[in-house]
Amino acid sequence: MSRTREFGVGLVILSAIAVGVVGTLWLKGTNWGRPSIEVDVLLTDVAQLAPGNGVKFRGVQIGRVATIAVEPDGQAVRVRLQLQESVSLPDDVVVLLSPESFFGSWQAEIIRRDRYPSFPFYEVQQPMEGDVRVLGGWALPELSRLSAAAEQISANLADLTERLGIAFNEETAADLARAIENFGVLSDDLRRLVDQQSAIALSVTSSADSALTEIELATRVARRSFERIEELLTDVQIDSIVTNVRLASGHIQDIAEDLAGSSDNFATTMGRADSTLARLDRLSARVEAGEGTLGRLFADTTFAVRAEGVLGQLDLLLQDLRENPRRYVRLSIF
Amino acid sequence: MRASVVAPIQGLGSAVLSAVASVGTAGHLGVGALRALRKGDMWGPHILAQMARIGVHSLPIALFIATFTGIVLALQASYTFTGAIPLYFVGTLVGKTMVLELGPVLTGLALSGRVGANIAAELGTMRVTEQVDALETLAYDPIAYLVVPRVLAGAIMFPMVVLMANAVGIVAGWLTSLWLLDMSSPEFLKGLRLFFRSWDVWFSVIKSVTFGLTVTSVGCFFGLHTTGGAEGVGRSTTHSVVASSMIILVLDAFLAAVLL
Predict the structure, then answer these.
(1) Tens digits of residue pLDDT in A43-52
(2) What integer best gives the mean pLDDT of chain B?
(3) A19 touching chain B per CB within 8 A
(4) Residue A237: pLDDT above 70?
């Protein structure tokens, strides 16, 4: 009986201790004798990472966080990872601490540095410390920090909204409405101005086109003229032209001399004309005075009456002549 | 003064004096137990029997309670989490709750009823039948002979029972998740390991040690101070269970506040 009791007590104690120890080690994720390597990570902050959290590489869990300790100088935190020895890590890798899920569990993920080039991973000065490789790391901001930032933004927005509420009263609204109306008028004016300017620009453009055309034509003419001049300058006829010009100049000189002589004759003629006109003046004055035959003729009105009567008789005579030509004309052949 | 005024005041004073006297008596018992530790030849031969009674014989009821506690935890966690929280947190809740709280406390309460009541009834009967007086007459230290082996056995075996109960409760929750909740083992284990810390197991052991000391000490105290024959034995048994249960709950809160 005593041995049975002893065996039972011993069995319970051993079983309980075994359950406690083995269960604890199993739940902690102990490797159970599998070879492992240690890798250190330096970071400025580890957020919610805790010993025992998983370490993933390319999405596969390859180890666990062993220890976390602040460096003696207080400038960084050293996280020791215990990884499977069979996994070989690339050269340019870093460690990103991030939430494993939305509910608080964190993980250490080994990634290539160029995957997140903008993340400020810790710059490691000594990549190897003895046999232990040292990697740089960075922890993503915690949800609580993001919430705090969002709360701050929300508070700022509330403050801004309150200020807008104060500033945007009825008067402001009316001013804004007027400003919008003025802006509409201004837009119409601008539209008209732009239309006018475009029409002017179009006209100027067409004028410029025509001017350019004319300039082009003038240029062509000038070019031809210059070519012609060049031809003339290069031609031997220039000598004859110069000679002809010289002769023409001589002839012009002769004509000028003749004109000078003619002018003298002209002066004489003008003198004679002046004396003739003087005589005519005197004659007209005598006629007007009724002197002489012609003067009496102009001065005596009876002469005009008689002349009118004579003209009347001539009309009658001519009429009668037309009506009775035989009375006045006799035509006989024999 | 009128009796209607004097009686309540007198009752209050009596209760306070009785409580202080009980504390003093318990302290005297504790000091006597510590002194009796030196008398190993007196308590040593009996400790194995007490370990078997308190530990081995208590395993079935403790594991039975732990099994159904694990099942209920998994089912209720699933009922609570569905649609809001990933189901692998069922493993987290089962593991944490069993190890930190329900394993030690439910086992302590169950054993306070079984072990504490048993000790109180046994010692109470010995007291009312004057067997304890006979021991004293025979120069046996009743504390070293009766109390120390029970208290030591309780302090040693309670953690063993609690560790087994924790494991069985977690396994029961795991199997329930597999068979009734359509969860996979990796899911449950992911949740189980998610927030597991070694300190959780140590905390569970520390609590179970204190609960073992409490249950056995209280049982011994009420048993050795039994008066009034068979009725007094029943009263001592009841008082032992109630007191040890209350002390367990108070210690549970105290240890959680101090150690976590």
Answers:
(1) 999 888 888 7
(2) 90
(3) yes
(4) no
Give the whole-angstrom CA distance, residue A131 versus residue A133.
6
Domain range summary for chain B, segments of one domain joined by +: 55-259
Chain B nearest CA to A54, separation (Å): 9
At which residue do the structure tokens 């300039």 appear?
A: A215
For the stretch A264-283, pLDDT in tens is: 777 787 888 788 888 888 88
CA distance B181 to B76: 11
pLDDT in tens, B179-236: 988 888 888 888 888 888 889 999 999 999 999 999 999 999 999 888 888 899 999 9
User: What pLDDT sits at residue B123?
Assistant: 92
Tokens at A172, concatenated: 């402001």
Please list, in sequence order, all residues whose beta carbon lies within 8 angstroms of the beta carbon of residue B98, skipping any fewer than 6 positions away.
B66, B69, B70, B73, B165, B166, B169, B170, B173
How far, in Å, CA of A128 to CA of A90, rounded? 14
Burial-class residue B233 by CB neighbours within 10 Å (0-12, 13-18, 19+). buried
What pTM was estimated for this model as a whole?
A: 0.59
Q: A18 in contact with B at a CB cutoff of 8 Å?
A: no
Distance from chain centroid for Cα A158 = 40
- Per-residue DSSP letter, A46: -
| Beta bridge pairs of residue A41 | A79, A135
Asked if B192 has any chain A CB less than 8 Å from its own CB, the reply is yes
In this complex, the residue of A12, A28, A105 whose CB is nearest that of residue B55 is A12
CB neighbourhood size of A252 (10 A): 10
Mutate to test the interface with B, among A5, A9, A21 (most CBs of B within 10 A): A9
**Chain A residues lying within 8 Å of B201, measured CB to CB:** 20, 23-24
Return the residue of A nearest to B194 by Cα: A105
pLDDT digits over A186-195, tens only?
888 888 888 8
Interacting residues of A156 by C-beta distance below 8 A, sequence separation 6+: none
State the best of B46, B50, B51, B158 to mutate against chain A, taking most chain A CBs within 10 Å.
B51
Tens of pLDDT, residue by residue over A7-21, are 888 888 888 899 888
| A63 neighbourhood in chain B, CB within 8 Å | none
- pLDDT tens column, B32-71: 888 888 888 888 888 888 999 898 999 999 999 999 999 9
User: Angle at the Cα of A235 (from A234 to A237), degrees rounded to 5?
Assistant: 140
Which residues of chain A from 80 to 139 reach within 8 Å of chain B, CB to CB?
101, 103, 105
The owner of tokens 């030509």 is A325
Looking at the complex, does the CB of residue B164 fall below 8 Å from at least one CB of chain A?
Answer: yes
Cβ–Cβ of A101/B48 closer than 8 Å?
Answer: no
Bridge partners of A139, per DSSP, are: A97
Strands A77-84 and A36-43: antiparallel
B40 is written with which tokens? 């190993």
- Confirm or reject contact between B186 and chain A (CB < 8 A): no
Q: What is the pLDDT of residue B1?
A: 61
Kindly report the CA angle at A51 between A45 and A53, in degrees rounded to 5?
Answer: 90
ipTM: 0.78
Instruction: Check whether A334 has a pLDDT greater than 60.
Output: no
- The number of residues making up chain A comes to 334
Sign of CA dihedral B96, B100, B106, B107: positive
Residue in chain A lying closest to B189 (CA): A27
